[in-house]
Queue: 2 jobs
Job 1
Amino acid sequence: MIDRGGSEALDTCVHCGFCLQACPTFLATGDEADSPRGRIDLMRALETGELAPDDPALRLHLDRCLGCRGCEPVCPSGVGYGRGIEAARAMLATRRRPPALARAALRALTSPGPSRIVYALARMLRATGIPRRLAGWGRFRFAMGMLAATRPTRNAKRGTRNTRAAASSAFRVPTSALLFRGCVMDGLFSHVHDATVRTLGVNGWAVGETPGQVCCGALHAHAGLREEARLLARANVAAFGEGDVPIVVNSAGCGAMLKEYGHLIGAAGFAARVRDVTELLTAGGGPRPGAPVDVQVAYDPPCHLLHAQRIADEPLRVLGAIPVLRIVSLPDAAQCCGSAGLFTLLQPAMSRAVLAPKLASLRTAAPQVVATGNPGCVMQLGAGLAASGLSAAVRHPVELLDESYGAAGYYA
Amino acid sequence: MSLLDRVRALLGDDAVEIASGPDAVPRVAPASPDAVALLLGTARQEGWRVRLEGAGTWLPADAPADLALTTRRLDRIPAVEPQDLSATAEAGIGCDLLRQQLADHGTWLALDPPGLAGRTLGSVVATATAGPLRHGFGPVRDHVLGVTFVTGDGRLVQSGGRVVKNVAGYDLTKLEAGGFGAFGVIVLVHLRLRALPRADQTLVLEGTREDLTQVAEDVAAAGLQPAALELMSPALARRDGWALAVRLAGSAALVAAEEAGLRGASGGRFTALRAEEAHGFWMRAAESFATRPITFRTGGLPDSSDELLDLLQHQVGDEWVSASPGVGAIRWAGDTTVDRLRRLRRTLAGLEVPLTLERAPWPIRSAVGHFGAYREGVGPLVAGLRRTFDPGEAFVVAVEGSD
Amino acid sequence: MITAGLVEALTGIVGARHVRTAPAERLTYARDGLPTHRRVPAVVVLPGSRDELAAVVRLLAAHDVPFVPRGAGTGLSGGALADGAAVLLVLTRLNRILSLDPSNRVAVVEPGVVNARLSAAAAPHGLHYAPDPSSQTACTIGGNVAENAGGPHCLKYGVTAQHVLALEVVLADGRVVELGSPSGEPWGPDMVGLFVGSEGNFGIATRIAVRLLPQPRAVRTLLAAFASLRAAGEAVSAVIASGIVPAALEMMDQSCIRAVEDSVYAAGYPRDAAAVLLVELDGHSDDAVVAETETVHGLLSAHGAASIRVAADARERERLWQGRKKAFGAMGRLSRDLVVQDAVVPRSALPEVLEAIGRIAATYQLTVSNVFHAGDGNLHPNISFDARVPGLRTRVDAASTEIMEACVAAGGTITGEHGVGLDKLRYMPLIFDAESLAAMRAVRRVWDPEERVNPGKVVPVHACREWSGLRIADRGLRIEQQARSPAQSAIDNPQSAIAPRGAR
């Protein structure tokens, strides 16, 4: 059997079309070429050579896939769409380099040296409050909105990134989980890392650090840069070493990628150790209830948590540990927000079109907070809400739990 | 060779009745679908004008024609399939005979058309005259799985089939059901049946029209789904006031539950009829329509029923009226003029309500037409379909009026 | 002829983004839900409004270009495919619910509205749209109208034709006509009834008024397992003959059960059963539904049900139904390619026909799975195969034909809800004689004289060409009005049934 690089995952498609209404881009355009079924036709034609890798229309529609994998859970015949699209993108990448913007963004956000400077500058800019004031539609103003959305909420407990926030002493145990820091998370969401460490601490997990870890490679793999992704994956596998200590992730996109290392580089053992923070918090009947927080929250599941990792209930159980907090339901919450890694930068028009129905339902539901567990989604939703003049804040579920725990005095 | 000689040569001596009817139009009764085709093919060649008749109890046999084609000898019931709840019957079978045969097999055709009990099946289907049971079981077309018909130039065409679900080809059956014979004469009908209801209960409430309209709304709002829910004028119900008649049919448990629900929704005011009373009540109402010279039906939205009844009362009177407020259908009988009917049809058309003239003497029928005041673009399509199925204009049918 | 000028004019109407000409884009429209047929359209147009659609149709009429309407492309007969000489009109953007009137229980929708979304919109009013094809989460109401779609619950509530009240239709020449009336009472002849199920050959429905029904207040769902197909088939007949009308009565055989149980829609069907029946009873009164459920339970037991499970709650019921509704897609797990068939037989013939299908499968050494609307006698044999194996496709075709012939021989028909499209053309002469087929074609030509809308579907015109009348007509000769035997076929009568296509 020849190695088809993942394309074989598409073979079970019988063209039934049940995926169409689960696809955010199809809903935006109504065009079969922007649907999972249509893209599978394109990928098959690419594999058989009926269409050339440099066919512009083929590229347009494959590039316009968010990679949200919302089609997978509704597929009766179990098509591995995510695997197929990455294989197709890898095939395309052998013929053309990803666009300059994508390469620049990847370098700026994920390479250890430059990204440190970029994030430092971004944090300085964020602290001025200027991005918040500039947030709006249009490429630049939307980017400003995205940056503004990464700012920790004022009443969140302040932690500095080098103090390993002391978990309540009662639970001081040997290292029981290792934190995956990632690139964007570490650069702009260190407050979420702090909240992760603290809330896990309250629930009996001592979270340790792992030197030498790098970006997970998800953005590279989505862009078809498989080799780069494999290099990063190998570096991470080496850094985290052998053993069975869980690796905790608070970014859905990173988590989904790390769980794919088995397919990517054969590191199934590593992949099996990866846990989303909400999985660990809810293990063994948890999490421990905190103090009341009087707030209305809409939970928006990240695609890479819900569809790729099939984690649906755990984040809600984390929010459920916060007394008084009310969850308002969003119609079509399971649909992508249009963030999808670099997609929001590379395909702004489609990205905004996908975001639009989400913002419309948020306007109706009018929550005070939108909770979501992925940095891209936080930024996309935050920028969209700001541009639409909606006041809801976007936060990671563990931030809310952290606030509740702080109020309960668990960190005293 | 005279017309009758030709027909005798084609179909045999016994197919022709001479000097029938007041207008002495010879009546021809073919005994098979093929004979109908043969006759109409010849009619097309000869340019004969043909009027269609069944038992002669519904539409007056008064259209000017060279000959009358009656289906009364097409009266066989080739198949009743109780396990499949389907049957095949020729168009000339009387509804009363058919009903009896079906009941012997434990089955039921859930249609209670107006007119006399001996009306032919073909007449009911061709004119799509449903009765009160339409509320629970749908219009005539919902009971017809397929038909075989003969076109005006003698072609024998099948449509639909014998099974309960069928989308093979265009659904010409829909054109024949309610086509008044303009698109062919139906010779054979495949029917969808139901199991003979184990329980069949009729309850009647008398009162003012306003009061009963409210009760009917309450019944609908309570989610009840009776087989019939009919608001009838005093003359039609043979009561002192208006009557709201409810028929419940089905399993004993279903009927008991619906009856309890009905009593709950109406404050327990309905009176249950005994079985023979109920039979008489519905039969007399159906027959009453055949005793008036003119009958028409209208179809509006359910919540406009009351307004439409007011309109009818104002324009043509409401002595003989039966309304099914749940589906918005109204049937009217009485006597009136061509002008009033035309005006009424125009007024109703403005409200997006069609008026179908079901029966009337030829002078009125031909002037008013069974159909009229079509919506945008429909007229040319109907004309095209008529040309297709009756290219020589052999059938004398007052499809549209002369207005 | 499709010219660059035409494409430019189309772009002028709908905008460049909504005209697709690139080979890659057209390729994604080459198939519908029955992937064994493949035709690449010349151009794909996605109009954004009724007016744009009508303008496009007028333009195509002026250029004498055929076109094919398409909704979600979930059809199962190759009905929504256009070839290289035709323009595909995709209606997914016409997806607004224009009005919803709870008191009269009527909704007016555009053709691209997805079936399940209409029911979702009606749910807050305690109403729903009854026809529920298995593809209801994806298929459009416009497509349902074109195909006269069915679904499990049509057993009690009737197929699409019984729920469509009125239509606004754009004809082949761009004229707009209004069929029916808001209440559903036909306005003149029953043009709505004639249009529904015409598979796009009569025009494009641009506004569709449908009836909504109250959601039943009481529902019970039973799952009964049987040790043989025959026993399950006999149980179906017993339930139907009892006089109880279940809301739905579905059957799945072992192969299908296992495919579903292996999928994300695993419903807990017993894997070792030869067949299961899914029976749903519903109504207004809980007492009545409970009593009917008991009766049905007794009938199923008496006919050899090995086990009977009653869904405990709405969640379990939903799970049982999801397994059934996604069964067709789940068949993708069995093999690379799949042909789904659609035929109806008298319900009493189910046991014999199912056994005949089993024999045919054995003869041709094929995997045939059955999942179908047993209460209607509406069979869906699914043939799983790998088209890459040489000669297999021929065997699949031969087996399909034999299955159709068996169903017709039992008194049935060749399609109950999927339509004729391309796939069933060859079976039409099994059930209709030449006269009846010619009558259908003649009716089509009343709506679309040049046969430009969805050409080559439903009525097998190729067979017509061999008929003497048409051959003469095609040469442009006219048959004189001469005396002829009335028993002669319609083909002899170009004036009426099948007037020649004429010089174009």
Job 2
Amino acid sequence: MHNVWWINSLLLVPLLGAVAVVATRRVPRAAYGIGVATASLELVIAAVVTLLYSWHNTVSASCGAKVCTGFSLLTTEDFAHRWVLAPSFGLAYDVAIDGLSLFLVLLTAIVVLLALLGARESKHEAAFVGWLLVLMTATMGSFVSSDLLEFFLFFELTLIPSYFLIAHWGGKERSKAALKFFVYTLFGSGFLFVGLIYLAFSYQHAHGGDLTFSYLVLQHAAISHSAAVWVFVAFAIAFGVKSPIFPLHTWSPLAYAEAPIAGSMVLSALLAKLGTYGLLRYGVFLLPQAVHTLQPYLLTLAVIGILYGSALAAMSKDMKRLVAYSSMAQVGFIILGVMSGSSIAITGAVLLMFNHGVITAGFFLLIGFIEKRRGTSEVTSLAGLQRPAPVLAALFTVVMLASIGLPGLSGFVSEYLVLIGTFSTHTWWAVVATLGVVLAALYLLWAYQRIFHGRAEGENAEMPDLSHRERWIIAPLIVLILFIGVYPKPVLDRISPTVNHHVLILQQNTVTK
Amino acid sequence: MTLQLPSVHYLAILPELITIGAAVVLLFAAALSRGRLDRMVGTVVVASASVATFVVAFFQWHDIAQHGASTTLANAVVLDGFSVVATVVIALGLLLSALVAHDWLGRESMTGVEYHILTLAATSGAMIMAQANDLIIIFLGLEILSIGLYVLVAFNRRRANSAEAALKYLLLGGFASAIFVYGAALIYGATGSTTLTSISYFLGTHVLTSNGILLAGLGLLIVGFAFKVAAVPFHLWSPDVYEGAPTPVTGFMAAVVKVGAFAALLRVVASSLGTQAATWRPIIWVLVVLSIFVGASVALVQRNVKRLLAYSSVNQAGFMLLGLWSGTARGVAGTLYYVMTYTPVVIATFAVVALVGGLGDEGHSLEKYRGLARRQPWLGGALTVLLLAQSGAPFTTGFFAKYSVIAAAVDAGGVPLAVLAMAGAAVAAFFYLRLVLSLYADGAEEPTLTQVPVASGTVIGFGAVTAIVFGIWVSPLASLAHHASLLFLQKP
């Protein structure tokens, strides 16, 4: 099989699954079965891709400044193969996987499968599964695109299924939440759209030839420093809304809280990563000229996001909002790493994207289990759950400690790398950001205390513990948290060559400026 | 003294001859036949005329590829790639709306072929506008188009709304035409010609020491066109007329009038007055921003779906003007691509509206659409696709339509305008999506099943399928628009 077909099948499988779900919507329970089967197959493909991915040939002399891909079985020519669809529009199909996107692809497969298994919605099930699979295609497409216009198409496509997931299966204020989410994101992506068109035309005017949005080509767009800064700002607005970065975050608590559990999982674990991933790939690595100028501002916003998110998380009365704000703080760490300009911190940030996805998916799954039993996720109406549900409490503890950054768990590795890397380039930002680690311990332990400790009364005392099925659903996430916490080497080995290669270019740009 | 007749290149004007001819044939057939002709006759004639136009267009395209663009009839009519594509789109609009009207006429128990005669005549007007190379000819086309439409809007005599809408349209349309003629007269005064190529030549070779008359004429021409395409602030007639007119006529107006008017507008402003870009660009800028934002935000509060779609089409007109604003070949191609992809989508949308409106064409409140897709997944699904395409969702033709005009604007240095337009698109996307959401909502008050006759079903299916197929297989339409260049407006 041609190797590009691994990537193509990542896009095709969920799409065909969605079509099959729609076609069999009248058959009871068929939708769910097809959905789970599709997502499982997708996970298998993603796992194979992850294992096959080899980092050895990524940065070698032979690959030079041209195409650097790290797919072991794939020579560079395979990715040079672009399928141009409409030359006058510059539209092309161009996919690739490198160290930045590899684990986000895996994360997408994991999270969607677990969302289907653990956060099933029985109302209009076929539509629910169908939208989730479409969302999977769109998210995968965004991560594997190697073309700006193609990326934008998939990036925009994520909006439609997520809008419907929130607006149909959400909580009481779902319409408002969906509206806010939709309008914010779409306003943001308007800037992205204009920015990338501007970039492509600048390249065309300077170099002639057909209009192209190819990532590999546009990396060499020689635009002026001020133009690069403006384009970077435009991109940062779009990705800042999606991530969310302070002060563009105001849609997120409502959307996370009102979305169905599966929606919250996808929003926080995957779509937020589209923002941070976009900022890294299409901001920092595509427009290195602008990084130096904008670094202080974005780093400051990241630090504010960490502190402000932590403070709001501490004040939250609802578990989902708490996780939403804690996500905002975590995203702050990711942005800190992304913007630091240090290869250690960027590697940490990429790892943190994956870890944060795993951890929030775990959080939302567990909250979903509590909500299913108790009908609420209000912190005040829950107490003493540890006694009736010890397994739930134990699993929650592991996820929570990973989020706090306890050594030996996955969160620690990535946060440590981000902070140490940032410290070497931007000391004071790192120092202030470290406070965020302490704050995370504060608000999470406090919430844990209120929910799981104390005396359980009434319904809280009667709450059943996790079933076997539910334990198995959480298990893969716990395994990943422990594995990466203890032995992150295979993961880091796959991430860092790509990062190092790009950071080298980044530093050359900074030096010449 | 002998009268020198201008030479006629018949291939160039064959589409107009076909449509007018078909109208005349129907007229005679109706007069000579005993009793009233069956509506089927009209539909068949219209369909044949449209298909004949497609065939002719194929030969025209071939002719242009071989001999280049040309003018004929004493430079009054032009045959270039742009006019051929616009003519095809107009003929397509005629065909689709005739199919919708076929079912509507049956539902309302109207016999006779008058409706089809009028649409054929109006269509020929739009085609003339697309091919005109002279301000007088444009005016001629405009009037043929408009007079047909005045009658069509009033066609449903059983509804007072219909007559009211026709009166409004007649009065405002009359004003617009008068303004247009006045503008044309002033341009003639300033340049000494009404032929577009001569105007272009004159302005390219002369420097006007005082250009007041030219500017006034230009302004009036733009106002006249802005009325026809319903650009803010000249849009006020459109919600009332869209609401009052019989729904198939509304679809016809939204598509065919827009294509004809935009074709002429692009030719006049971008091509022949291209040297005056510094003057008309700011005017178009304002029209773009106002149309996009007023259209999108007023649509948010509409409770009647026809009014909502009227404001939606105002919003879309803003985007079409964006391509004109750039004034480049890319911009012209962008606007052409926009109207090309918008035509089947908007007619199909109004076909759904006509069906849901039911007998008497009255049920147009948004309530009627609640849960439509739950009751009728195919109809609701098609409407979902059509609305998403209009909102510019990815992987539909609507996305690339917006992309093509935004890209043209960015290329022409209009980054702020492009950003504003995208913000307006975000607002517009919201009201489309809200309507889509209500299609899937539970708990309709009085669930009624909408009958979908074959002809309308075909149109709806065609609109939805093309929106998706050409949204994924982008290349054919994109290169068609790209190669359909205007005479005298060269590729960069």
